[in-house]
Amino acid sequence: MTKPTPSKLAMVPFVSVDDMMKIVNTIGPARVIADIADYIEADFLRWEQFDKTPRVAAHSDEGVIELMPTSDGETYGFKYVNGHPANMSRGFQTVTAFGVLARVDNGYPILLSEMTVLTALRTAATSAVAAKYLAPKTSKTMAMIGNGAQCEFQALAFQEVIGIDTVRLYDIDAVATQKAAKNLSETGLNIVVCSSAQEAVTGADIITTCTADKQYATILTDNMVGAGQHINAIGGDCPGKTELHRDILLRSDIFVEYPPQTRIEGEIQQLNPDHPVTELWKVIAGKSEGRKDAAQITLFDSVGFATEDFSALRYVRDQLDRTGHYSLLDMLADPDDPRDLFGMLRRAG
User: How do residues 223-244 score in pLDDT, each as one tens digit?
Assistant: First the structure.
């Protein structure tokens, strides 16, 4: 008996970690981040088309595992992602992820992709989109507090999209800072290694905080933030995990992705539930003001939202034919008669 061969409908494009690295290196990391930023901005402009829900989180003492779903009515997407701060000390990544796009009309998946690398790219791209509307237009210097896995992606994003030329690095782990400085040494950025958070933020137009501890923390105190600075707070992303002193929030105009999620997971979990915030999509769409004047302190309280992953997956899918870096997986049962799944199974025996 001849075993059935998979049909075209059974095959789903799969982007492995190796494929993703080849795609990024073929196009160029900075260019990929800027391109993903364009996709994210385009999807923010059609924000009202998307199904939106806070991510579904399973918390444990060690970390969190989350599902992040959304749909624009034609395509459905989700990301599986974990966050385990102690992983680094055990030789594991703090964050790993994979994602799926599927057709809404028949439910068939059309892309399966790694998203550990892609999440780093889209997180940086989202930060740059926000800074485009919220940071001082003359921004040239960024302080990067927390020099772990996300650090270099953020630096490239702000160089490519915003035009910064100087990055001031600080981490409580000097080895992490040395790693980041080495990785950024050939980017054309002026890299300044700092001995404290206070030193890093001095003279910075933009302050990015990206630390991993799953706890209430005070990476920035009120006296460290001055008039006119833009804060890009991306480390706090679950209940009980923050980076900024509450007084900074009270002095800032706060911008968020999706309030029902950010009030649970972001810096604003420290504030009253009715504290005013502005949704970033409204700024991009011209429905709300972003930066109003040179003295304003703006805060992007970013926790990551499903539409950004959707945008990143859309971008990757659009690069498959261009780069050829993917494989096909036999993922879907496709019997000749949709009612005869058992018959297909038996003929394969």
Answer: 999 999 999 999 876 778 788 9
User: 109-114 and 97-103 as β-strands: parallel, antiparallel, unpaired?
Assistant: antiparallel
CA pair distance 46, 51, nearest whole angstrom: 11
pTM equals 0.94
Is the pLDDT assigned to residue 80 strictly greater than 90? yes
Query: Which positions ≥6 away from 209 have C-beta within 8 Å?
Result: 145, 146, 219, 220, 231, 232, 233, 234, 235, 243, 244
Give the pair of three-digit tokens for residue 6. Answer: 């998979």
Q: Which DSSP helix (H) or strand (E) runs through 246?
A: helix 246-251
Is-contact 298 134, C-beta < 8 A?
yes
237 is catalytic: yes
Catalytic choice (19, 205, 237, 301): 237
Instruction: Mean pLDDT check: name the lowest of 87-91, 105-109, 237-241.
Output: 237-241
Contact present, 40 and 128 (Cβ < 8 Å):
no
Residue 176: CB atoms within 10 Å: 18
Pairing between β-strand 75-83 and β-strand 253-256 as defined by DSSP bridges: unpaired
> Does residue 216 carry a pLDDT above 70?
no
